[in-house]
């Protein structure tokens, strides 16, 4: 399902910060939370396409810098009452190295999953 | 493959459902529509104005035939459906057309009720239902003279009025003693009858029709008491019956109407029904508003959104007779425990009655003045407690505004009036969200509608709406929590930081029991500011708690690029700087170069990874960060003063440069702008700045608390000073007082309005010792602040990770 890419060390990303991984299909934002978990979302807010990597990380959430939408890092889902979703990607941490899983079927999915 | 939706009935309810469906799920269904009438879809409600000659048929068409074609909808007009084969899931029309369906929508509407009396099938006896009826009436009006309308309800009176307008002598026959008994109480009904009689209508009240007489065509009406009146036309408007023949025939369960559940499904779940043909919770509706609500729910369900239930409607009525204002809603005849609030002014022809139970409106009848009908209807639907304004409620909503701000009331605005310009939110959307989502606080309204969530200038309007819709609004508590992460207010947190000597975010979170271990996007930037402004030498500036602009020292734009504004002291520049800026713009292909309102040059559209290189080049020409991105000192705007200006009284440019060199780099609760004007003509616009100096012959006027942004506020005059040295001292002291006591994201204008100008004067003007102490603290803090953030980053010493991607893959 996934192509795994080594993208760097966990300490390359500041705590409560984010870095961008450039791919041929657009940027992926990789976030590090206060408890040293790492998450990856497509670097586009479902609202107006703001770069999520430039936002403020708090808990397991990210606030978009453009209009303060808040998204769950684990799922990419917007926090109510906003509705929307940024595609999320799996990240593995092995021996201090980060691996990002990109979908290898049809490039990167561009459409967010349907919301019930 | 798309599913197939067949709509039986090309009327308002069915087509509204289709329109709603096309909006939310345009590609879900192949849609086929069967209509018995030979037209597109038209607004049946407006048949009365057509009859009265005030509108034409063309004007009441909603969707013409092209509309259907453009949307790929197959339309069969003039075709009755005669059969539904529910097992095979297909319908068959009178001419044999067969259409299969996955979902079927019945919107067969209603038929006029025709009295079961002899002669009711004579030519010249009609209902008032469709375009054909109107055409019949108009034809009769051209040849005949007399008309009888049976039924003194809404529809009958509109028909009678129209026929009278067409020149006929019209008699309205009503079986009861009062007109429109389902909408009006006897008082209003009498006023209406008198008014209509004055216009030329005749009434036979309490009259029972026995037979219609005539051979080829109706010529007279006979009543039970033997009276006969001659006529050329009889319009039956004694009520409507849901048209359920087809549904009944194919075994779909019907009572008075086709019985549907809250999602508008019949007992066959593949078959939906909307409009006048349905019976929902025992209720049939003949007015338009419930149809719209049904259509919305039905469309949502057809689109499989699974949201929305129809829970019945409270209806209101207006009589569409030009020149007569009449409004009715809810239960207007009272009942146990009900009180009536009545206003009667016979001279003006005004009658208003509200039926109230436990201070909540149950019903309303308005005659002669219906301006407030929609307001009363809103109070009724939302069950608003009117206790607070009960004494004046009948004077109308405009009257309430007297106690509101500036004599203006937001409630008098139309539903589609825009409240929040930033987010394009209209009044109706806000009141709807408040009612439907049961919102009680400003924050909730902001979260759900975005109204006032951006610039905030419409906050007052939104609060008024909230107050009027919910009933009352709790005053914003003085000690409002900073955010959802804590119960503490800004001021409490600040005091704790100072008194407990808290110097890091972690210590604040621990000492004040923060609910979220690392706060949120709202509190972290505020706390970081409080820390570095309170403990400039000790607290570490936490970059991850900075908003992106302050983290990367440039302004993020909507496309994710940045803008760069180099500092130009007092607005002065020179050829060398301009050349450097031009070179940078060329080298990095910067698409837009713009002069700002603060007398600076803005380079817009810089790619993030180019920022350090752009800064390096600007640094090389002697320019530093302009802090156009920060909650910090922005610009000192100046005019040219005594150096050049023939009116100049002091060296305004020079003073501006000195002030800027002294204050640049300082962080403040919100942005901070200054200006120095060389004479009272005030070309530098100093009186809308946070700190403004207006030079006069005898010295310097110091103005504070101005704001030219969302809500313009002219400055207050703080004092007048004699020397530049004093101006600099007062400037530092004022900035420091604001830095220490202003709340994060509070500009000086609202801060001064909150604490009062006299307080600011007492701390700065009247207390020399305190002024000097403030000034000293400011200058002390500047030692840690006046480091050019661009130079640090251009050299790659600081935050290099911010400007480079982590990795490139693929």
Portion of residues in beta strands of chain A equals: 35-45%
Strand order of the largest sheet of chain A: 2-3-4-8
The averaged pLDDT of chain B comes out at 89
Oligomeric state of this protein: heterodimer
Number of helices of chain B: 26
CATH superfamily of the largest domain in chain B: FAD/NAD(P)-binding domain
Mean pLDDT of chain A: 86
Report the biggest beta sheet of chain B as strand number plus sense, adding barrel if it closes: 5 strands, parallel
Distance between the termini of chain B: 36 Å
Radius of gyration of chain B: 37 Å
What is the CATH domain class of the largest domain in chain B?
Alpha Beta
- Fourth-tier CATH superfamily name of one domain in chain A: Rieske [2Fe-2S] iron-sulphur domain
CATH topology of the largest domain in chain B: FAD/NAD(P)-binding domain
Radius of gyration of chain A: 13 Å
CATH level-two architecture of the largest domain in chain B: 3-Layer(bba) Sandwich
Extract low-pLDDT stretches of chain B: 401-408, 472-478
Strand order of the largest sheet of chain B: 5-2-1-9-21
| Shape descriptor of chain B | elongated
CATH third-tier fold name of one domain in chain A: Rieske Iron-sulfur Protein
Given helix and strand content, the structural type of chain B is: alpha/beta
Question: Could you characterize what this model shows?
Answer:
Chain A has strands spanning 2-9, 17-23, 26-32, 38-42, 56-58, 61-63, 70-72, 88-89, 91-94, 97-103. Chain A has 116 residues and is mostly beta strands. The two termini of chain A are 25 Å apart. Residues 401-408 and 472-478 of chain B have low confidence and may be disordered. With 810 residues, chain B is α/β, with parallel strands linked by helices. In chain B, helix 1 (12-24) packs across helix 9 (288-302), helix 15 (490-499) runs parallel beside helix 17 (523-534) and helix 21 (652-663) runs parallel beside helix 22 (724-741). The radius of gyration of chain B is 37 Å and the shape is elongated. Chain A binds chain B through residues 5-8, 12-17, 19-25, 27, 30, 34, 48-51, 54-59, 61, 63, 65-68, 70, 81, 100, 102, 116, and chain B through 306, 447-448, 453-454, 516-521, 524-525, 543-545, 547-548, 552, 556, 558, 560, 801, 805-810.
């Amino acid at each position: 399902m996934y192509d795994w890419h080594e993208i760097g060390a966990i300490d390359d990303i500041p705590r409560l910060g984010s870095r961008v991984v450039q791919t041929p299909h657009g940027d992926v934002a990789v976030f590090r939370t206060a408890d040293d978990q790492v998450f990856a979302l497509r670097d586009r807010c479902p609202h107006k396409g703001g770069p999520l990597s430039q936002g403020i990380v708090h808990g397991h959430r990210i606030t978009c810098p453009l209009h303060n939408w808040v998204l769950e890092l684990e799922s990419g889902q917007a926090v109510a009452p906003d509705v929307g979703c940024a595609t999320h990607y799996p990240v593995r941490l092995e021996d201090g190295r980060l691996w990002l899983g990109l979908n290898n079927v049809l490039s990167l999915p561009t459409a967010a999953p349907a919301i019930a | 493959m798309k599913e197939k939706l067949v709509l039986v009935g090309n009327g308002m309810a069915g087509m509204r459902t289709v329109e709603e469906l096309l909006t939310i799920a345009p590609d879900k269904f192949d849609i086929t529509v069967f209509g018995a009438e030979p037209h597109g879809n038209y607004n049946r409600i407006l048949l009365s104005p057509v009859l009265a000659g005030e509108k034409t048929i063309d004007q009441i068409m909603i969707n013409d035939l092209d509309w259907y074609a453009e949307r790929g909808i197959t339309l069969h007009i003039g075709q009755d459906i005669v059969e539904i084969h529910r097992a095979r899931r297909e319908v068959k029309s009178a001419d044999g057309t067969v259409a299969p369906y996955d979902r079927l929508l019945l919107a067969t509407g209603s038929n006029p009720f025709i009295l079961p009396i002899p002669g009711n099938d004579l030519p010249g006896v009609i209902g008032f239902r469709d375009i054909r009826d109107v055409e019949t009436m108009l034809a009769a009006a051209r040849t005949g003279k007399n008309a009888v309308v049976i039924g003194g309800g809404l529809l009958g009176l509109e028909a009678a009025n129209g026929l009278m307008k067409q020149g006929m002598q019209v008699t309205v026959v009503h079986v009861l003693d009062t007109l429109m008994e389902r909408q009006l109480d006897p008082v209003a009904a009498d006023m209406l009858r008198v008014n209509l009689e004055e216009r030329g209508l005749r009434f036979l009240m309490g009259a029972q029709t026995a037979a219609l007489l005539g051979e080829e065509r109706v010529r007279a009406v006979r009543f039970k008491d033997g009276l006969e009146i001659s006529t050329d036309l009889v319009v039956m408007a004694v009520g409507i019956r849901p048209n359920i023949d087809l549904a009944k025939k194919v075994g779909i369960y019907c009572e008075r109407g086709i019985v549907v559940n809250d999602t508008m499904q019949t007992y066959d779940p593949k078959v939906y029904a909307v409009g006048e043909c349905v019976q929902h919770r025992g209720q049939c509706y003949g007015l338009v508003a419930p149809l719209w609500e049904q259509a919305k729910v039905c469309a949502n369900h057809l689109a499989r959104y699974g949201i929305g239930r129809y829970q019945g409607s409270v209806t209101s009525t207006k009589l569409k007779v030009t020149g007569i204002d009449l409004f009715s809603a809810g239960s207007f005849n009272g009942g146990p425990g009900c009180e009536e609030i009545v206003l009667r002014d016979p001279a003006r022809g005004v009658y208003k009655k509200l039926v109230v139970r436990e201070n909540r409106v149950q019903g309303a009848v308005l005659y002669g003045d219906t301006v407030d009908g929609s307001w009363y209807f809103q109070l009724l639907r939302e069950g608003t407690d009117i206790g607070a304004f009960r004494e004046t409620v009948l004077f109308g909503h405009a009257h309430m505004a007297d106690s509101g701000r500036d004599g203006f009331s937001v409630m008098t605005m139309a539903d589609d009036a825009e409240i929040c310009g930033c987010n394009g939110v209209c009044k109706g959307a806000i009141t709807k969200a408040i009612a439907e989502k049961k919102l009680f606080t400003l924050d909730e309204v902001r979260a759900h509608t975005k109204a006032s969530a951006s610039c905030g200038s419409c906050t007052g309007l939104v609060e008024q709406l909230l107050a009027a819709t919910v009933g009352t609004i709790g005053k914003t508590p003085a000690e409002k929590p900073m955010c959802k992460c804590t119960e503490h207010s800004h001021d409490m947190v600040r005091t704790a930081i100072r008194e407990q000597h808290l110097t890091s975010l972690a210590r604040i979170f621990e000492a004040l029991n923060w609910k979220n271990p690392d706060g949120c996007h709202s509190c972290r930037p505020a706390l970081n500011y409080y820390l570095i402004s309170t403990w400039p030498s000790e607290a570490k500036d936490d970059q991850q708690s900075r908003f992106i602009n302050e983290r990367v020292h440039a302004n993020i734009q909507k496309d994710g690029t940045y803008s760069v504004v180099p500092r130009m002291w007092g607005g002065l520049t020179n050829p060398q700087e301009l050349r450097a800026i031009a070179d940078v713009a060329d080298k990095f292909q910067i698409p837009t170069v713009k002069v700002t309102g603060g007398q600076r040059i803005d380079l817009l559209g810089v790619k993030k990874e180019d920022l350090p290189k752009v800064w390096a080049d600007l640094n090389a020409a002697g320019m530093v960060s302009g802090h156009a991105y920060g909650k910090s000192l922005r610009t000192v705007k100046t005019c040219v003063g005594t150096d050049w200006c023939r009116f100049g009284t002091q060296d305004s440019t020079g003073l501006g440069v000195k002030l800027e060199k002294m204050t640049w780099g300082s962080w403040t609760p919100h942005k901070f702008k200054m200006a120095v004007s060389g004479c009272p003509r005030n070309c530098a616009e100093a009186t809308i700045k946070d700190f403004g100096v207006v030079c006069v012959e005898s010295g310097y006027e110091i103005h504070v608390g101005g704001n030219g942004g969302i809500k313009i506020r002219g400055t207050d005059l703080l004092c007048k000073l004699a020397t530049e040295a004093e101006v600099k001292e007062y400037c530092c002291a004022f900035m420091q007082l604001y830095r220490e006591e202003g709340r994060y994201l509070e500009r000086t204008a609202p801060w001064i309005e909150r604490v009062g100008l006299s307080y600011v004067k007492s701390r700065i003007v009247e207390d020399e010792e305190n002024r000097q102490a403030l000034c000293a603290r400011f200058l002390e803090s500047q030692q840690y602040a006046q480091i050019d953030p661009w130079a640090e980053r251009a050299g790659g010493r600081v935050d290099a990770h911010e400007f480079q991607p982590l990795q490139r893959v693929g």
